[in-house]
């Protein structure tokens, strides 16, 4: 599944981050590719929030030549 996290050009707010976490809990996807992750650290915060709610997740920001802010969220045990 892919998702544009920011929905614009500004940083992801704490409220939007919480909504993203709730939706991801419901989706229960193994891997999610996210674009427009701003700032980059927010994807790690989302992974930590999901892990804190009982589903172990990891996160990574991909090396990229353009500033697309592409990141991955993936469940523990999934190799990417």
Explained architecture:
This protein is α+β, with helices and mostly antiparallel strands. It has one domain. 31% of the residues lie in helices and 22% in strands. It has a four-stranded mixed beta sheet, covered by helices on one side. Strand 1, helix 1 and strand 2 form a beta-alpha-beta unit. The chain is globular and about 30 Å long.
Task: Give a brief description.
The protein has helices spanning 14-27, 42-52; strands at residues 2-4, 31-35, 57-61, 71-75. The protein is of the alpha+beta class and 80 residues long.
Q: Which structural traits does this protein have?
A:
22% strand; 4-stranded mixed beta sheet; 4 strands; 2 helices; alpha+beta; 80 residues
